[in-house]
Design brief:
The chain has helices at residues 15-39, 45-59, 62-75, 81-99, 103-125. The N and C termini lie far apart (73 Å). 17% of the residues are buried. The longest helix is centred in the first third of the chain and has 25 residues, at 15-39. The chain has a single domain, classed as Serine Threonine Protein Phosphatase 5, Tetratricopeptide repeat, CATH 1.25.40. By secondary structure, the protein is mostly helical.
């Protein structure tokens, strides 16, 4: 009976095969945005910092992502992706430090989270 025949499923490339392509694409995008950052006016840096933070976050280079998001917030304390991603990044780094029994690292990222929360509250209240 044809009713019980299995349909042929399309062959999906292995996730492992897609990973190098994705990483290569992210690195190309990072190069593009770093070049834009180098050639742009300081007024245009915030969106570039945010994009670089996002690309590094996706690449799982958390230290670089934090670096760019912190630069974004330093220039523009408006609520947005930089704030929300930094909360996630600080939690990731705190958990990593915890799993490595790095008490100083745990305390450092707890303090960074607290500072970000204070900045968030101040921004919402308009105390900036």
């Amino acid at each position: 009976m044809s009713f019980f025949k299995r349909k042929k499923q399309k062959q999906q490339p292995e996730a492992e095969e897609q990973q190098p392509v994705k990483k290569e694409h992210l690195l190309e995008q990072i190069d593009i945005y770093q070049n834009k950052l180098a050639s742009s006016d300081q007024d245009d840096h915030v969106p570039l910092f945010n994009m670089l933070g996002s690309l590094y976050f996706e690449l799982e280079d958390y230290d670089q992502a934090i670096h760019y998001y912190e630069q974004s917030i330093e220039q523009n304390k408006a609520m947005g992706k930089a704030f929300t991603d930094l909360v996630k990044l600080y939690n990731i780094k705190r958990k990593q430090a915890s799993s490595e029994n790095d008490r100083d690292g745990v305390q450092y990222y707890l303090q960074k989270s607290d500072e970000l929360m204070k900045l968030t509250k101040d921004t919402i209240r308009g105390n900036m």
